Amino acid sequence: MQIYGADYYPEHWDESSWEKHVKIMKEIGIEWVRVGEFAWSIVEPKEGRYNFSKLEKALKLLKDAGIKNIVGTPTAAPPMWLIKKHPHVLPVDKFGRQKGAGSRRHYCPANDVYREYSKKIVEKYAQHLSTYADMWQIDNEFGCHDTTLCYCESTRKAFVEWLKKRYVSIDELNYRWGNRFWSQTVNDWDEIVLPINTPAFENPHMMLDFFRFSTDIHIDYMRMQSEIIRKYSDKPITHNLMVDFFDIDYKKLSQYMDLVSWDNYVATKVYDPYRQAANHDLMRSLKKKPFLVMEQQPGRVNWKTINEQYPDGYLKLWIKQAHLHGALGVLVFRFDQIQWGAEQYHGALLDYAERKTARCEEFSRAKRETEGVLVPEKEVAIYFSYENAWIHRINHLNRNFNYWESVMEIYKAVRRLGYNVDFVFEEDDEIDSYRLLIVPYAMYLPEKFIEKLEGFKGDILITCMTSIKDEHNWLRREFPHGLQRLLGLEIVDFAATERVDLNVSGLSLSGGFWCDKIMVKDAEVLGSFKSGPFAGMPCVTKRGNKYYVATVGDEFFYTFMLGKLLPAKLVGDGVDSAQISEKLILLNVQEHENVVWVSNERIPLGAFESREV
Ligand SMILES: [Zn+2]
Q: For the chain, percent helix, then strand, then coil, each to nearest 5?
């Protein structure tokens, strides 16, 4: 089943516009809409006074026209009457300031009062709208607008309860958090505080637990809603995830959804095809299943400093790119452009006068050109961990290092060589079918994954910073923990650095951010540092088919390094690709003509053209 549609807000319109909207939907091939996720004050304008007639009427009209409905629960935007009555449901930021109402995501998921209100409204949604719902979306974009960590009293109390379960005894917590340092020892659970507006660095062990707890509280809040919906509906339940977002452990969260969906917005100033591709691949990898793009940027957005226009053709390209990476389909955000509200500058399929834009035709064409759901072959795996994203953020040897950005340098090199990438996680059981497994910058590597590495038959490439910490964010006593035999080396020291020059197999390359001082025991030296704190010492080693890189390499470095393990399937620039069984599908992501070489054959591609070879 493929899912093509748009995000629609019937409550923003007079009913007189609905039939016209549905007619256009049918004309351009919209088969699904997402509705209702910000409509709380429409259906409950005053506390306990419910009026679902407008929403029900709209959903019935859509359903009667053969359009399927994804119903979003409205809890990401509590109504003003609720905030007036219970202002303490508002979240608190890390400076101790209460956040305000008047936009969205102004609630704390740990607050019991808000949970009661959430249960009531979700139950009403389920009672009234299950007849029309073909899928459910819980809430909207957990953690958006920097709301993952809340510093309110409700959160503190819930965190303490979470800690009691994790550590059982206060002595154990004091030990694991290293509370002897800076006089942080606590005598009982209630002395635990959240680090609000601290003069110096927070406790790194506590912060890692605080991130873990914050994922768990969102999972708990989502499950609370799912359980209510399940009393009334057996349709799939999802939540819409975000681009380049690592505050919440999406791997863990996704295990409580029937399918993964995410909102595909251009994360950088200019569209970077490989970055969007990496996000698609990460989303597919969470459940190793097809995913849905719940919101697709249509052209311009409203939330950047400069909200650039994208010329005609980009929407079609983005839909085709999602399809290439294994999407079930795409919903364009949004169907209807409106004159008012905080997103008044956001693009849509219609214009302000409810007329079709050129994007409607693009949508229809993209839909016609993306038949069937593609399942990319398992070729290269990159180990990824949300906990490591937090560990790198909480404390650092080199603040300029960014985990995701450096992982993406490796990702881009693999993609340029023409290979599919799956991200793999500690929980994943099936990792043996990949020909190459890369484990980059994984400061904490769980024992069970270390065991999987030992049994892995394919090539393995491990980088600096890997397996140097334990689950409590303590440094290990020996590095890399559990991998010394596999790699035939020991790391005896490490250092932060600016750019360093390298000599790898006779080629001059560069690294940066971090260097390891390697003591080789049973490995071949393939490259050495030419500059930096460990000049003259090994920087790349090999033991059998297990490689180690003792610094942070960029895309160029990895294109060279990996080129030996992955013979280039394509040579060229500005092309995304996917290996689908025997076929290599190419997609020119440039708005002009392009040429790539595949097996010494010259392949010309028109602007945004895709082709199977
Ligand atoms: Zn809170």
A: 35, 25, 45
Taking alpha carbons only, the member of 298, 337, 296, 299 closest to residue 17 is: 337
Q: How many structural domains comprise the chain?
A: 2
Which pLDDT tens digit goes with each residue over 137-158?
999 999 999 999 999 999 999 9
The low-confidence residues of the chain, meaning pLDDT below 50, are none
Distance 110 CA to ligand 1 centre (A): 6
Residue 473 shares a structural domain with residue 579: no
| 145 C-alpha to ligand 1 centroid (Å) | 15
Q: List all residues 6 or more positions away from 499 whose beta carbon is below 8 Å from its beta carbon.
A: 510, 511, 512
Shared domain for 397 and 424, answered yes or no, is yes
Which pLDDT score is estimated for 429? 85
Asked if 581 and 443 sit in the same domain, the reply is: no
Identify whether the C-beta of residue 480 lies closer than 8 Å to the C-beta of residue 491: yes
CA of 143 to the centre of ligand 1 (A): 12
Question: Does residue 433 lie within any of the structural domains?
Answer: yes
- 400 with 474, same domain: the answer is yes
Per-residue confidence (pLDDT) for residue 430, from 0 to 100: 86
**In the listed set 563, 583, 601, which residue is the last one of a domain according to the structure?**
563
Q: Is residue 153 annotated as a catalytic residue, yes or no?
A: no
Structural domain that includes position 579: 570-612
3 state SS for 181-248: HHHCCCCCHHHCCCCCCCCCCCCHHHHHHHHHHHHHHHHHHHHHHHHHHHCCCCCCEECEECCCCCCC
515 and 584 co-located in one domain: no
Q: Are residues 552 and 575 in the same domain?
A: no
Cα(282) to centroid(ligand 1), Å: 29
Q: What are 84-98's pLDDT values in tens digits?
A: 999 999 999 999 999
Whether 69 is in a domain gets the answer no
- Domain end marker among 546, 563, 580: 563
Expressed in angstroms and rounded, the spacing between residue 305 Cα and the centre of ligand 1 is 29
Query: b vs e for 151-189, b when ≥16 Cβ sit within 10 Å of the residue's Cβ?
Result: bbebbbebbbebbeeebeebeebbebbbbeeeebbeeee
pTM (predicted TM-score): 0.98
User: What CATH number is given to the structural domain containing 556?
Assistant: 3.40.50.880
**Ligand 1 centroid, distance to 35 Cα (angstroms):** 28
- Token representation of residue 63: 């359903």
Q: Are residues 457 and 390 in the same domain?
A: yes
pLDDT of residue 261: 98
In a domain, 590, yes or no: yes
Candidate list 37, 44, 295, 379, residue with the active-site label: 295
Average pLDDT, the chain: 97
Give the long-range contacts of residues 192-195, CB within 8 A, separation 24 or more.
Answer: 192/156, 192/159, 192/160, 192/163, 193/156, 194/151, 194/155, 194/156, 194/159, 195/94
CA of 1 from ligand 1 middle (Å) equals 40
The single residue listed with the structure tokens 């809890």 is: 75
> Pick the catalytic residue: 37, 44, 141, 379?
141
> Which residue from 561, 601, 600, 593 is spatially nearest to 574, judged by alpha carbons?
593
Residue 405 placed within a domain = yes
Active site residue 295: yes
**How far is ligand 1, taken at its centre, from the CA of residue 443, in Å?**
29
Instruction: Note whether 588 and 558 are same-domain residues.
Output: no
> What is the rounded CA–CA span in Å between residue 548 and residue 531?
19
Radius of gyration of the chain (CA): 26
| 3-state secondary structure at position 342 | coil
Pairing of strands 3-7, 32-35: parallel
